[in-house]
């Protein structure tokens, strides 16, 4: 059985920057799902926290997106360019395990 390469991103956290200049983090979570028709597939959940740089006291904004078909998410993750509710997020770098865990604990727990 071939494993879909999108699974390489499961649990990964990236530093991202929006095309508007906001900075933040992207968390990728995948699940092996069974759909209502009985078929199995991969569901991709993307969560983002962003803060605007122009504010004196920036606050974090959370949003998330679920993709029941991993094709679009796979392409976005590989390209490092995520379409996000009318803006584009650019992956600056993927965090190592310790840094990723700290971000998850602070922003996504």
Structure description:
By secondary structure, this protein is α+β, with helices and mostly antiparallel strands. The chain is globular. Strand 2 and strand 3 form a beta hairpin. A six-stranded antiparallel sheet has the order 4-3-2-1-6-5, with helices on both faces. 20% of the residues lie in helices and 45% in strands. It has helices at 70-79, 97-108; strands at residues 13-18, 23-34, 40-51, 61-67, 81-84, 87-94. The model has no long low-confidence stretch (mean pLDDT 89).
Radius of gyration, CA atoms, in whole angstroms: 15 Å
Helix and strand succession? EEEEHEEH
Class from helix and strand fractions: alpha+beta
N- and C-termini, Cα separation: 33 Å
The average pLDDT is: 89
DSSP strand count: 6
The gross shape turns out to be: globular
Poorly predicted regions: none
Approximately how much beta-strand content do the residues carry? Answer: 35-45%
Summarize the structure.
The chain is α+β, with helices and mostly antiparallel strands and 109 residues long. The protein contains two helices and six strands; from the N terminus they run E-E-E-E-H-E-E-H. The chain has a six-stranded antiparallel sheet with strand order 4-3-2-1-6-5, sandwiched between helices.
Which key terms come to mind for this protein?
alpha+beta; 6-stranded antiparallel beta sheet; 109 residues; globular; 2 helices; 20% helix
């Amino acid at each position: 059985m071939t494993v879909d390469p999108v699974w390489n991103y499961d649990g990964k956290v990236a530093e991202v920057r929006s095309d508007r200049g906001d900075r933040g983090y992207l968390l990728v979570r995948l699940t092996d799902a069974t759909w209502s028709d009985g078929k199995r597939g991969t569901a991709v959940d993307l969560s983002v926290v962003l803060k605007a740089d122009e504010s004196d006291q920036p606050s974090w904004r959370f949003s998330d997106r679920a993709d029941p078909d991993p094709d679009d998410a796979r392409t976005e993750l590989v390209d490092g360019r995520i379409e996000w509710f009318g803006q584009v997020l650019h992956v600056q770098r993927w965090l190592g395990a310790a840094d990723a865990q700290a971000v998850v604990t602070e922003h996504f727990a």
